[in-house]
Predict the 3D structure of the following.
Amino acid sequence: MKTYTVAILGATGAVGQEMMKILEERNFPVGTLVPLASARSAGKKLTFRGEEVTIQEVCAEAFQGVDIVLGAAENDIAEKWAPAIVAAGAVFVDNSSAFRLDPNVPLIVPEINAADVKNHKGIISNPNCSTIITCTAVNALNKIAPIKSMVVSSYQAVSGAGAGGPIELMNEVEALQKGETYEPKVFSHQIAFNLIPQIGGEQMDGYTSEEMKLQFEGRKIMHLPNLNVAMTCVRVPVVRSHSISVALRFDQKVTVEQAREVIASAPGARLVDDLANKQYPMPLDTTGQDIVFVGRIRPDLTDENGLCLWCCGDQVRKGAATNCIQIAELLIEQ
């Protein structure tokens, strides 16, 4: 079997660490793994497939001889090193938002628009985690009738803010149990026993940058250029897995039975929809795996051409690391 030299840009972060784990799980044909990070981490050791690998400081020369670079760093890092990655002849599969809306960069959810991979020019973008989870849940419905619009509320886990999010939540809970105070550092307000209805800064008309991603990215992924989305993103005191409530409007009526049938067989999705027996998607059930659970499917009582549903997915895995590696698998298949 042919093997590949794979670099991880941002290997020490939560997503980078998850990428290493998933490369092992999926038996990706890695010949050489090149973990890249800042000078502060260079020289430290990580374990991959039972062997130690040394973290290298990221520099242009580090990309020489690399086939695929998995990006697990922030926008500024992705933008800084993308030219060097492409110049070295590698393909950059980037998890940041730096290139998602670039018309020359494919934005891929493999279960939805795998064929778009062939249009890459050295860079492929991984969508926002909530976009991936939502689109995976609803794309099968779009094949029954085109989706015109969505009203969406996301309930996003603290780990979506990075490794410090769960630590802050636990520290706050511990402090409050002792009757002590804890000054938030990661979030703008106390997250323990609270909800924060803002993720990202204001982008337009009172919507945040996080809230606009589903509209702009969803249009590109599902090839729906006129899709309109009104989204509210909320940070919740859940450690892992994002939950999303979706009200969809179609150009014709889609029945609950039709929806259940197509979602049950949709790639990347699992139907969990039995209200009488208290079976529905929940963060605890979706954590640590790559399937998006979909349930609570019911008619929209405000629109005869509408449906409502609820979905959950692990935003660190399917919403970031796994989706990137699935894109890399598409590359080597081609």
